[in-house]
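User: Let's play a game. I give you a shape written as tokens, and you guess the letters that built it. Ready? Here's round one.
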């Protein structure tokens, strides 16, 4: 992890998991520039994840997984992000889905059995819920994707945006409005189904390597069993969303490490020593170190408590708070790295500019800052 590894790696299992994540991180980093340039989630990257059985690692042992708890998973996610943030964020959505259905039991046993069995074969899943006219699903917009019951099948039509790893998915969990029942529901769609296509629309500033293209559904027929009925169980706070700040923390850590290497090696002819010896650069590195340490303690202390405490429903505000704190700290760390690198940080020769673009995406991942501030304000005023 860089700073104080021994503080966060509590036992031999975590040490071994972290070593594996380090190998994944190193290998996916080799593809990061190409993925960023092409705005695709690459086959090479997916092969690395499958080689280490990473697509099933959080599943119970009964399904061939290693039954990672939240703390262990975030340790690995942060390290993967250090190699490539886009890879970590992408696979985080897949593994987060598995973490949610494992922890909450909100889906029926048959749904869980199907998803877990397929994921154990290293099949790739992701939700597809965002749409062009509804914005973020967290804002509450009703999907314009429509599911209509025709005899013994549902027929689905619509378009989903921000479908991460769209070209590589085996299954998409799609939200759709059912006009006959006047409700929103979920459908599990095999990406090989007739009528399913990908529109390569992904051309963004940052996180280009996620390949988050549009998913287009035209008269896609779905058997009744793939209409995902939920249990009536109360949903827990979505702690698995902490993979988001873990990702941006990993990007910030990568920027910090490269800033150190740059500062030690760069010596303009106006100085008789590398810039690492200048007061201004040392101040920036010190601030970066403090921010990383603060964010890491916030994130992993909350993950530990989630794993240990029974009253998880009380942690919702803290989960949101940690996301906002860590992603904003990561912004500052990468900004400071760019300031140390100066104009050279803008060059494609270095990774700084990719870190700078990728870390910005954290501001647009849920929960958004303004929503969290409003929630905390309401809590304070109510008290």
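Assistant: Ready! My guess for every position:
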């Amino acid at each position: 992890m860089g700073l104080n590894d021994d503080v966060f790696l509590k036992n031999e299992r975590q040490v071994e998991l972290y070593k594996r994540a380090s190998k994944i991180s190193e290998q996916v980093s080799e593809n990061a520039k190409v993925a960023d340039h092409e705005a695709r989630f690459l086959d090479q990257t997916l092969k690395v994840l499958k080689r280490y059985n990473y697509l099933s690692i959080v599943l119970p042992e009964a399904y061939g997984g290693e039954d990672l708890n939240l703390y262990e998973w975030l340790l690995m996610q942060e390290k993967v992000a250090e190699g490539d943030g886009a890879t970590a964020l992408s696979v985080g959505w897949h593994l987060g889905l598995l973490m949610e259905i494992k922890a909450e039991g909100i889906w029926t046993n048959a749904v869980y059995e199907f998803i877990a069995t397929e994921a154990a074969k290293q099949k790739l899943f992701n939700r597809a819920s965002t749409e062009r006219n509804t914005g973020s699903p967290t804002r509450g917009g009703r999907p314009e994707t429509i599911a209509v019951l025709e005899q013994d099948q549902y027929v689905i039509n619509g378009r989903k945006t921000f479908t991460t790893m769209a070209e590589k998915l085996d299954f998409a969990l799609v939200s759709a409005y059912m006009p006959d029942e006047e409700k929103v529901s979920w459908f599990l769609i095999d990406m090989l189904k007739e009528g399913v296509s990908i529109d390569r629309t992904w051309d963004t500033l940052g996180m280009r390597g996620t390949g988050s293209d549009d998913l287009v559904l035209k008269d896609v027929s779905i058997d009744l069993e793939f209409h995902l009925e939920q249990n009536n169980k109360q949903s827990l706070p979505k702690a698995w969303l902490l993979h988001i700040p873990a990702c941006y923390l990993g990007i910030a850590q990568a920027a910090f490490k490269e800033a150190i290497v740059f500062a030690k090696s760069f010596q303009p002819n106006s100085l008789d020593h590398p810039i690492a010896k200048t007061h201004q650069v040392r101040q920036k590195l010190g601030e970066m170190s403090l921010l990383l340490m603060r964010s890491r303690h916030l994130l992993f202390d909350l993950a530990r408590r989630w794993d240990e405490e029974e009253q998880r429903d009380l942690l919702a505000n803290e989960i949101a708070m940690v996301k906002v704190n860590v992603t904003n700290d990561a912004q500052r760390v990468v900004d400071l790295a760019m300031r140390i690198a100066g104009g050279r940080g803008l060059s494609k020769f270095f990774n700084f500019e990719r870190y700078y673009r990728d870390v910005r995406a954290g501001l647009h991942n849920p929960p958004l800052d303004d929503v969290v501030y409003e929630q905390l304000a309401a809590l304070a005023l109510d008290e």
